[in-house]
Amino acid sequence: MNTPDPRDELVEHLPAMRAFAISLTRNGAIADDMVQDTLVKAWTNIEKFQVGTNMRAWLFTILRNTYYSSRRKANREVADVDGVFTDNLAEKPAHDGHMQMTDFRKALAQLKDEQREALLLVGASGFSYEEAADMCGVAVGTIKSRTNRARARLAELMGLNEDEALEMTDDATMSVLSASKISSF
């Protein structure tokens, strides 16, 4: 005896599946997509269907699960029509940051010891000018001057213009270069 292929029965249930999908989504286009997804899932998993059981119930279960899965997914997603969030999620390649970090380290090593010390205390470590001056045993103006000269010399050694941004992946390095800790020089 030859048993019928359950795939042949799928088409019979399309109108009922579409009606059920519309009742769930309240949107014809989304309902059609869900019915299509359900058919693809049913077709690819037809070996899991037990011949002799209720095909409509099996299809409706798949459709219902597809709907709830899409709802859970939608709750985790953020609408980003203008691409604002996507633009903020972009990550620069790490190799650019590594290369610029190498250049930065070479330039930092070329600074005078006093300038490097002042820059690292104020920029990288986040100490105030007053705190750095106390640590170094010099006047506040001296620390400000050393820090300013160090930043200017670093920019010169690295070939940066005043309006040119230095793109690095390391916030500590950026704070060394910028008194206001802004990510551009």
TrEMBL record:
InterPro entries: RNA_pol_sigma-70-like, RNA_pol_sigma-70_dom, RNA_pol_sigma70_r2, RNA_pol_sigma70_r4_t2, RNA_pol_sigma_r2, RNA_pol_sigma_r3/r4-like, WH-like_DNA-bd_sf. CDD domains: Sigma70_r4 (cd06171). Signal peptide: none annotated. Residues 104-154 form the RNA polymerase sigma factor 70 region 4 type domain. Gene3D superfamilies: 1.10.1740.10, Winged helix-like DNA-binding domain superfamily/Winged helix DNA-binding domain. Residues 12-76 form the RNA polymerase sigma-70 region domain. Keywords: Sigma factor, Transcription, Transcription regulation. PANTHER family: RNA POLYMERASE ECF-TYPE SIGMA FACTO, RNA POLYMERASE SIGMA FACTOR RFAY-RELATED. Belongs to the sigma-70 factor family. ECF subfamily. This is RNA polymerase sigma factor.
